[in-house]
Specification:
about 90 residues; two-stranded antiparallel ribbon; globular
Length: about 90
């Protein structure tokens, strides 16, 4: 069953498509965002607020969220019922 992760402001992401959730603070992450925006592969779900997480999806699409990686990881963990992923 497909589960959706709330990434803030009513925006949802399919958990089956998430490859990684990273902080936008490093230089490689900033380059990733710049390149994705240039190639129109970025979805900005921040509603004009500061980007605190980059959600990397399958097929090289990224989603920008104003929620922190720890918050998103906690929500993802809750959706999985607290089970550890293998």
């Amino acid at each position: 069953m497909t589960e959706l992760l709330n990434i803030g402001f009513g925006n949802l992401v399919n958990t089956d498509k998430i490859a990684a959730i990273v902080s936008p603070d490093s230089a490689p992450a900033k380059r990733l965002v710049q390149r994705a925006k240039k190639e129109e592969r970025a979805v900005d779900a921040t509603q004009g607020r500061k980007t605190r997480s980059i959600i990397i999806l399958e097929r090289d699409t990224i989603v920008l969220s104003s929620l922190g990686p720890d918050t998103l990881a906690g929500r993802f963990h809750e959706l999985s019922g607290g089970k550890e992923e293998e």
